[in-house]
Request: fold
Amino acid sequence: MRTRCQSSKPIQMGSASDTMTTQNETMTTQNETMALTVAGPETTVATIPQSPVGLFRTAEPTEIIERATGMATALKEVVAKQGLLSNIKGKEYPRCEAWTLLGSMLGVFPVLVWSRPVEHGWEARVEARTISGAIIGAAEAQCLRTESAWAKRDDYALRSMAQTRATAKCLRMPLGFIMSLAGYEATPAEEMPHDLPERPLEKPVAPVEKPVAPVEKPTATAASRVKMIDALQAGVGGANRDTVTAYFRVNGMLGAHDEIESIALQHVPGTVRQMEELAERIARFSLRESGEPEAEVDAGEELRGVLEAVSTKTGQSKKGVWTLYGVKIGGVWANTFDDALGKSAEALKHNEVVAYVTRKAKGITLNSLEVA
Reply:
């Protein structure tokens, strides 16, 4: 405060006839100062700075925007980190705690005026006040048992929620634009219907492809079994009936005294390709049994060990349904799409086996499998 005196003499005070010689009192406001002038024989002028304008201590629009934006940035960092949001239908709504934090940043505080019971619940009134007591916002809110989430709650809970809703609402009135600058919804989370479930932001849903009708795998029949036996006995794979029977017995597909006519259909090839692969395996078996070298047969790398496990994975492609078999031998996994090989592997589990595999960039392919 600056005080300028034109005379050091005191103002004269006296009786009714000797009254104070004050001729006029004027109060003027100019720019950012207030001048109080008392005219008379002695004149005193007091200059008092005005209070800052608004919550942002300025009346300049650009400065208000700049300060509000900075405050929104600082608010967003804390609100997101501390989880003071409710995500409802993919939108983020600030909770009451976020609103009271914003109010504290600007020196605005919620003050409960009253709360009272009403039919089916409670209502409350809260005012937003500055530190000097100026009211800059107010709101009334209710919490009723007609709401599904509050139908069976106690009185104290309804009363508390009514006050919470009024608190957030009264701060939203003067400060909602700052919350919007922070990127959040200006509606307090407590005002949203409580029967709407919170859930994460929705992610784009990939287009659903039209399902392709499943294509059944070729299934072996009794007729297929007859054709297989006829083909093998006719010399396909370079083996006779005894060799073929021995192959099935050694690999657990036939009992010790069973004949090939009684082989289960699950071990019978259902396609020409499967038949060719079976013939190749029987040919290698025949060569090994006869003691002849197997160098002429390009079977791949030999793999020996205990067949520890068998896994399956199914899927569908343009060619139809497929099954990928994973066979673990001596700690090494090899894969095959051959159903006959996969079923043989399941039958030989925990036995010592010899397999022929091909190592490729994408893994190891199982070509054949037999008892060691």
Summary: The longest strand covers residues 301-317. The mean pLDDT is 74. The chain has four domains: 2-49, 61-191, 216-297, 299-372. The CA atoms of residues 304 and 313 lie 24 Å apart.
